[in-house]
Specification:
The structure holds two protein chains of two kinds.
Chain A lengths: L1 H26 E10 L6 H20 L3 E3 L2 E11 L4 H15 L3 E3 L4 H11 L5 E4 L10 H4 L8 E3 L4 H16 L9 E7 L2 H16 L3 E7 L7 H9 L4 E5 L2 H14 L5 E4 L3 H6 L8 E5 L10 H12 L11 H18 L5 H10 L23 E6 L7 E6 L10
Parallel strand pairs in A: 1-3, 1-4, 4-5, 5-6, 7-8, 7-9, 9-10, 10-11
Antiparallel strand pairs in A: 2-3, 11-12, 12-13
Helix pairs in contact in A: 2-12, 3-4, 6-7, 8-9, 12-13
Chain B lengths: L11 E2 L2 E2 L10 H20 L7 H26 L7 H19 L3 H20 L8 H19 L2 H4 L5 E2 L14 H23 L2 H11 L1 H6 L4 H27 L1 E2 L6 H14 L6 H16 L3 H18 L4 H24 L1
Antiparallel strand pairs in B: 1-2, 3-4
Helix pairs in contact in B: 2-7, 2-10, 2-11, 2-12, 3-4, 3-5, 3-10, 4-10, 7-10, 8-10, 11-12
The chains are: A alpha/beta, B mainly alpha.
């Protein structure tokens, strides 16, 4: 009898728990979502943010019980693939996620070329793709996002570049101006010469000119590490402000070299969060401005953003120059989840796209609800911060609202 | 039948002669072995998709395929004629950009652009080869490097004509006999077909009098001139053949990625191509293919990040230079011969 109890009770418990687990499995469905991002290689700083933000969003949604679709509970299952900053690997990963794993959406990548090539895989398979570079604006059009267009299922997670460039230029000049003896009139934009760099600098130069600046553009080859010859050339142009665009990792190499050479009386560092400026103990006698897409890690304007970064880093995310970018991928994950709930079925990606096109979503990214325009691009503000001269952790920040219209080119 | 059918190459390999008695590549036995091996290889790679290997593996196999095609060009140039280039990606770029620009500006699709890509890359190969008639060795290598850098600068700053740094997009390959090349399996077979043609062409060149003349030039250019060989013409010929293979690889690459940009054809990809051909070995028929397989699949199989990969390639290259001057393919051949010899000896003993 005792033996029967000793063996029987645990056996019964095990059986019951098995039945309970089976019941849970029967009730819970799974939504597969893929991430293709550079977790190694030269784009690792940007790539890390995608995977880390998607992990946090997935964990929070799943911990809160998942999402309800047609009366059934679904939880997200994430499949993260490192593209090693290599287009062939990114393509192979996209093929695997779309065809082998069968994901319903893909987050990534951070590079223009990779994203475009991936969209040619996700589009025909009707898999949604949330990809994070504003240079996609060059290919997102009425035709390409139409129902039969090759970018119908692709959404750009960054704002339109002219909006970001205009608000950034305004913010930088308004913060730097009072710090200089005379208002800045001459800017040099120092940018990496690749697809993203060309697209971004074109917009930013236009925005600076619209603010009354005389602008020189100096491009450096991607992967440059010794910037001194080019920075010497920049110095010879006698700029009031040198604007470093766009790769935060390259900027963090170039900026100390510029300080040593005394290139300009003030600097702007795009893609460098105040948080990393503080972590690295950077310091300059000149005023240094930084901007964040959308809100800054290290000097967040809202409590919700501060709370976000606490949770983000608590999950083990790397502290990089562009950690703030993770906010974008985080919010869009919730948008996607909400769109699925609204549609009420998993097998209708066209309906999900339609739901996203109409959605107003109040997330962490923006003080106003997020919404996509008819080219699958969003609008939100940019935060610009000034590091007080001689300090690593004293910042004065301002949130610049996006302009309604694009600045006029020459 | 001897067991040395892997020896599909020229008679001389650095580190020793392979022209042993009974291993004449033109003997009937050897030819049958070569055909058996080639057929077995084709059947194996053709059967890969049916083995449920997954799309990721298949994608990497496609990348390996068109990379190997480009490497066969470099293999001819380096392995047969002894002229190294670190600008071979530029030839690939010329093939790819020819196809992309024809598609974007003139609406010309894959099939019509295919000969144009091959011919233009061949002409570019010949032009880049011209300096080799005056300089050699490291001086010529620097010239190829400069050409590669120059091409990237031109493409990056070419405005809407080249798509600038953003690059160019292409559409799908038009169907032939109802075959939809948007399907990855069909694209795999397209690349495989191109690779088979490349292998056959390379084999034909290596075993022709032209191939033998190239090897004579490689071994002693002055002597080759002295005995009346038109060295200049042969060199330009091999550069053009090398460019043609790269052009074919380029058009296959652009229609696979469906988007290209100048960064794909810079100095770094060129160095990788040189690395692959050195690792695999440029002198044996299957050397470039082996090099492409190693470099494309190693990070996948061993889950290496780019930094670890580069360390692994560096170490592998050192090992190859020190221990296997003919590349991994020559090492595999040596192992194969050793095992084959062992089996033959045991068979003889058992028979006696």
């Amino acid at each position: 009898m005792r033996l029967g109890i000793t063996l029987g009770l645990p056996l019964a418990a095990a059986l019951l728990s098995g039945i309970a687990a089976q019941t849970a499995l029967a009730e819970d469905g799974e939504i597969k979502v893929g991430v293709v991002a550079a977790e190694s290689g030269s784009f690792v700083s940007a790539g890390n943010t995608i995977a880390a933000a998607a992990k946090l969003a997935t964990q929070q949604i799943n911990d809160a019980g998942g999402i309800k679709i047609a009366g059934k509970t679904y939880k997200f299952k994430l499949f993260i693939r490192d593209d090693r900053t290599n287009v062939d690997t990114a393509i192979a990963a996209a093929r695997e996620l779309v065809n082998d794993v069968g994901v319903s959406a893909v987050w990534g990548t951070e590079s223009h070329d990779f994203s475009v090539s991936m969209a040619k895989i996700t589009g025909p398979a009707k898999v949604l793709q949330f990809t994070g570079n504003s240079s996609l604006g060059g290919v997102l059009s009425d035709q390409t996002v139409a129902k039969d267009g090759w970018l119908h299922y692709t959404f750009q997670t960054e704002p339109q570049e002219w909006q970001r460039s205009t608000s950034t230029a305004k913010g930088v000049l308004s913060l730097v101006g009072p710090q200089l003896k005379t208002p800045p009139k001459h800017s040099v934009v120092f940018v990496g010469n690749d697809a993203t760099g060309q697209y971004l600098s074109e917009n930013y130069v236009t925005a600076l000119k619209a603010e009354g600046q005389t602008v020189d553009l100096v491009k450096y080859p991607p992967d440059t590490t010794d910037f001194s010859p080019l920075l010497t050339r920049v110095k010879s142009l006698n700029p009031d402000v040198v604007h470093f665009w766009y790769n935060g990792d390259s900027t963090l190499i170039a900026f100390p070299q510029a300080l040593k050479l005394g290139v300009a009386p003030s600097y702007f560092l795009f893609g460098v969060d105040p948080g990393i400026y503080k972590e690295r103990g950077l310091k300059a006698d000149q005023p240094v401005t930084m901007s964040c897409v959308p809100m800054c890690w290290g000097s967040a304007p809202f409590q919700a953003v501060k709370d976000y970064f606490v949770k983000y880093f608590a999950l083990g995310a790397a502290k990089g120059p562009q950690s703030s970018v993770s906010l974008l991928y985080y919010d869009y994950f919730f948008m996607y989840a909400k769109a699925l709930e609204q549609v009420g079925k998993l097998d209708d990606p066209d309906a999900v796209v339609a739901a996203l096109e109409k959605m107003q979503y109040q997330g962490v990214v923006s003080a106003v609800p997020l919404s996509f325009n008819n080219h699958h691009q969003v609008t939100f503000a940019t935060e610009v911060c000034l590091a007080e001269p001689g300090t690593s952790d004293q910042f004065k920040c301002a949130v610049e609202a996006p302009p309604a219209t694009a600045p006029k080119a020459d | 039948m001897t067991m040395e059918f892997l020896n599909l190459k020229m008679p001389m390999v650095r580190g020793g002669s392979h022209a042993k008695a009974g291993t004449d590549p033109h003997s009937p036995d050897r030819r049958i072995e070569q055909i058996v091996f080639a057929v077995a290889l084709i059947v194996l790679v053709a059967a890969l998709p049916s083995l449920n290997i997954g799309y990721r593996f298949l994608s990497i196999a496609i990348t390996t395929g068109y990379t190997a095609i480009a490497l066969y060009g470099l293999g001819l140039q380096f392995g047969q004629a002894g002229i190294m280039s670190v600008g071979h990606a530029a030839m690939l770029g010329i093939g790819a950009y020819t196809a992309a620009m024809l598609s974007n500006h003139l609406g010309i699709g894959f099939w019509a652009a295919l000969p144009a890509s091959i011919v233009l890359a061949a002409i570019a190969g010949g032009l880049v080869g011209l300096p080799s008639l005056r300089v050699s060795g490291q001086h010529y290598i620097i010239i190829t490097f400069c050409f590669c850098a120059l091409l990237v600068i031109c493409l990056t700053n070419g405005g809407s004509f080249t798509g600038a740094a953003t690059g160019l997009d292409v559409g799908s390959i038009p169907r032939v006999l109802g075959i939809n090349f948007d399907k990855l399996f069909n694209y795999y077979y397209l690349v495989l077909g191109a690779l088979a043609i490349t292998l056959a062409t390379t084999y034909a060149i290596m075993n022709s009098s032209y191939g033998r003349t190239l090897r004579a030039i490689r071994e002693n250019e002055q002597l080759a001139r002295a005995i009346g060989i038109n060295v200049d013409m042969h060199k330009i010929g091999v550069f053009m053949a090398s460019g043609a293979f790269a052009g074919l690889a380029g058009i296959l690459q652009v229609y696979y990625l469906r988007h290209i940009s100048p960064t794909l054809y810079g100095a770094f990809p060129s160095l990788y191509l040189a690395l692959m051909v050195m690792l695999g070995g440029g002198r044996l028929l299957y050397g470039p293919l082996i090099g492409a397989i190693i470099v494309n699949f190693l990070p996948e199989v061993m889950d290496l990040n780019p930094v670890d990969s580069r360390i692994a390639y560096g170490v592998a290259l050192l090992i190859v230079i020190l221990l296997l001057p003919g590349g991994v393919s020559s090492g595999l051949l040596a192992i194969y011969r050793w095992v084959g010899g062992l089996l033959v000896r045991r068979g003889s003993k058992a028979g006696s």
